Structure formats: structure tokens, C-alpha cells
Amino acid sequence: MNPPIVPRALVTAATPPVDHDSVIGDLHEEYLDRVRSHGRTHADSWYWSQALRSVPALLSYSRSRRSPGARIGTVVIVAVLLLTMLAVNEFAADVMCSFVRDTCTARSWPFYLVGWTDAAVFGAVLAAIVPSQGVRLAIISATALLVAIAAPIALGFSSRLTLSTWLLVFGAIPAMGLGAAAYQIVRRRR
Amino acid sequence: MAKGEFLGEFEHIVLLSLLRLGDGAHGALIRVEIESVTGRSPAIGAVHATLERLERKGLVASWIGEPTAERGGKAKRHFKIEAVGVAALKAARTALDRLHAGLSLRGAVT
Fold first, then answer.
1. Which of A35, A104, A127, B50 has the fewest Cβ atoms within 10 angstroms?
2. What DSSP line would sit under chain A, residue for residue?
3. Cβ contact B31–A26 (<8 Å)
4. Is A22 close to B76, i.e. CB distance below 8 A?
5. Chain A partners of B10 at a C-beta cutoff of 8 Å?
6. Which tops the pLDDT comparison, A135 or B92?
């Protein structure tokens, strides 16, 4: 019987190759014990919880071993979070548009509010996942997002954006950094 | 003692668990020991990250065992506490005992 594939892949991506067997093997061993004692559903949810809670520690651990796998893992995790942030932003903008008519036609304050809040939450999530690098990673990933949007436009592959959309994208950089910084301040106070 | 030589709270817990289990304990056993004794359920990643840090400080040593079927064909990393690790635990205990000396915790929090 095998543990769920997605959390296993997540742990594999975050663990340095030298310790891959010991970490994955330890999780597998306890997973099988839990399948026998509590059933498959409980064991699956335990595995998911262990994997998600292990990633921050494994990433910082991996950095100390300078593992290229861990760096790739960090990039993959940041990219997935970034895509999630964009999807949440689209969804929130659509919901807001159905309630506040103005946001559908002219890009007004709710448009910026949703986008920047989303970016700040993303920054805070990033700071929670990679505590020691949160603010830096948030600013780097927001800048990468800006470049990813600007490059196709500059090369003529994509249509030009409106001024308000540019404002939203540029505003996302400090918003992400502030979200990450706010998370770190709250965490230190606790 | 320099700042980096002091044991962190979780390092202290992991070292004590390793001492309780004896030489040859591995990550999963240490995780379960912490959970059963303290009621705190640490992530396996946190246990391994801490063990790696303790190994870098020279407080524990590790070696790789044989792969087994109940681990999905993966090998165990066994750990043992070094004399420096025991000394660090003694120093931490002495420091805590000094801090507790003469204190009464009863009624300290209102």
C-alpha cells in the first residue's frame, strides 16, 4: 500500500537527495502503521498533514546542504503559489464585479484592493513556508511575475495592458513584501 | 558558551528523546517518542532538520542502515548521541536548574 502521491512528491522535492530515503522511508513506515491501526483515510490525512508541515523545515534544511533539488523544489512551490494567487485574484475580481458594477467596466478601488490584498496574503503564505527568506522571495517572485507579464508585451506576443493593470501589477511587489514582513513581525511577537 | 552553542528548545527535546531511545534510533521513532511523551506532534521534516543541525554541531552521529520492505524499500538513517551531546544536555539542565532555584511557580500566574 502506497501513501498519496502528491504529498509524497512535495516532500521529495523539498528534501535533499542525500536524505531522501530516510525522510520518505520514515513517513512510509509510520503511514503503514497508521493504515493498520486507524485505516486508510486517517493515514492519508496524517500523511498530507506531515508533508505540508514538513516542507518549511525541509527547505531550510536543504539550503544548509545547498541541494539543487531543494532549490528546484522552492521554485516549483513558489510557482504553484503564484498561479494560485492569480486564480484567486481572477475569481475574487469576478465575484466583486457581480456585486459592484463599477469594477466590471472601469478599474476602480475594489479592483486594486482585491489584487493587492491577494498579493499581501501570498507574501504572508510565502513567509510562513520559507520563514528565513519570506520577504526576499516575495519580492523576487513579484518581480518575476512583472517580467513574465511585461516580456511578451515588449516582444509583441501579447496585447498592451491598460495603465490600471500596470498599476495593479507594480503595486503587487510592495504588497507581497509587506504581507511577508507583516507575517514575520506577528510571528516574532508571538 | 557562545550563542550558537546553546541548545534550542526543539533541539533539547530531540536530544532527550534520542537519549531515551538509545543508540540506533531513527527519525520516525524519535518523532513518535516526542509525540507520546510530550503530546506535541512534530513534523518529520522538523525532526530531520533538527537532527541534521545537531549532527553539524557534532552533538549526534548518524549512519545509514539497510533498506526494508516496510519502509517502501528505503534505508533508515540511525542516530546516536555523542559525548558532546550529553555534555550539552547537562549544561542546559544546569542552566535551567539555576534559573529555577529559589523560585516558586505556585501562584506565579494570576
1. A104
2. ----HHHHHHHHHHS-GGGHHHHHHHHHHHHHHHHHHH-HHHHHHHHHHHHHHHHHHHHHHHHHTT-HHHHHHHHHHHHHHHHHHHHHHHHHHHHHHHH-THHHHS--HHHHHHHHHHHHHHHHHHHHHSGGGHHHHHHHHHHHHHHHHHHHHHTTSSPPPPHHHHHHHHHHHHHHHHHHHHHHHHHHH-
3. yes
4. yes
5. none
6. B92
